Amino acid sequence: MSGRSVPHAHPATAEYEFANPSRLGEQRFGEGLLPEDILTPTLYHGYYVRPRATQAGEGSRAGASELRLSEGKFQAFLDVSHFTPDEVTVRTVDNLLEVSARHPQRLDRHGFVSREFCRTYVLPADVDPWRVRAALSHDGILNLEAPRGGRHLDTEVNEVYISLLPAPPDPEEEEEAASVEP
Amino acid sequence: MAKVILRHLVETPVRYEEQFEARGLEDCRLDHALYALPGPTTVDLGKAGAAPAPPVDSAAEMPPQRGESRFQILLDVVQFLPEDIIIQTFEGWLLIKAQHGTRMDEHGFISRSFTRQYKLPDGIETKDLSAILCHDGILVVEVKDPAGTQ
Fold first, then answer.
1. CA–CA separation, A155 vs A98, rounded Å?
2. Whether the Cβ atoms of residue A123 and residue A107 lie closer than 8 Å to each other
3. Chain A interface, mutation test: which of B41, B90, B106, B118, most A Cβ atoms within 10 Å?
4. Distance CA B31, CA B20 (A)
5. What confidence score (pLDDT) does residue B46 get?
6. Where does the record place the SHSP domain (chain B) (predicted)?
7. What is the pLDDT of residues A44-65, one digit of tens each?
8. Half-sphere exposure in the Cβ direction for A57 (13 Å, CA)
9. Does any CB of chain B come closer than 8 Å to the CB of residue A134?
10. In which band, very low, low, confident or very high, does the pLDDT at B115 lie, cut at 50, 70 and 90?
């Protein structure tokens, strides 16, 4: 009997490659816009959208979350350029890799702003959470890396015994018994 | 009306056909104010349609000049739902808070929040402001009734 009926690549995990793009844009948030930042409307799935000059184009890691799952390595890139290095924390909770960041109110070119976010990646089952390494590049891209394949993936199968409960007493029989007794 | 050739919805939105009649088609194509969404310059649509009016008039009420004097904020809130966004005014400051709880996306789970503060011009109160959230995630907060028109 095979071990799992739901694969490790459940939609909530990073391994679910079927419908998930490896790169997610628009990870910067709370950005002020100037009228000249809004570009000519284009069509996206039949809707008008106005691209912003602040958005980075395809292929760039700016403003994006990017996942790379290869044979030997789990790798994620995340834009945290709004935050200074000491405002970003990375931790693992079981097989969850959490990146959280917050910055207090500060002045940017549009005004005062404070931000906070928490992003959670679900590590693939064969990644050891203790071996996750994080590096922050000069342009604010966080690089999260962990080797894969270090853990054994033998499925543990435990057949659960089904105990049979006694049938409930028949109410009619109970009534008869009650009427006979006195 | 028969002369208007609809080539593409983006180029010629149907609802503004009347304005295309009044103005040259090629003019309208690059005029963002004619599209369904407010474009780079927020020009009053009624005024844009009346462009072929006598040039003396249109020079007197040049829309871009009026636009500059208006208080207007553009904010990219594409990650947030309308109900996630709170707009408040407090003692001459405009506060825009947006927060969404943990939700699932293609890479896992994400929660975000931010607060932005802007100094309002003197004499501007809550009732003078209007806010529009466009479907492509641009929040526009602006003074409802531009002082320039009076």
1. 26
2. no
3. B106
4. 11
5. 44
6. 53-150
7. 777 777 888 777 666 677 888 8
8. 0
9. no
10. very high
C-alpha dihedral (A36, A53, A46, B133), degrees to nearest 10: -60
Residue ranges of domains in chain A = 62-150
pLDDT at B61 over 90: no
CB contact under 8 A, A36 and B40: yes
The secondary structure of residue B52, as a DSSP letter, is T
Residue type for position A80: V
Residue B121 within any structural domain of the chain:
yes
* Chain B positions in Cβ-Cβ contact with residue A14 (cut-off 8 Å): 107-108
Kindly report the length of chain B: 150
- Considering only the beta carbons, identify the residue of B78, B107, B116 that sits closest to A113: B116
Contact A116 B113 (CB under 8 A): yes
Which candidate from A29, A48, A52 shows the least CB-CB separation from B114?
A29
Check whether domain A62-150 has CATH 2.60.40.790, yes or no: yes
pLDDT tens digits, A58-114: 667 788 889 888 888 999 999 999 999 999 999 999 889 999 999 999 998 888 999
Interface of B with A in 23-42 (CB under 8 A): 32, 35-37, 39-42
Predicted TM-score (pTM) of this structure: 0.67
- For residue B130, what are the domain limits? 70-141
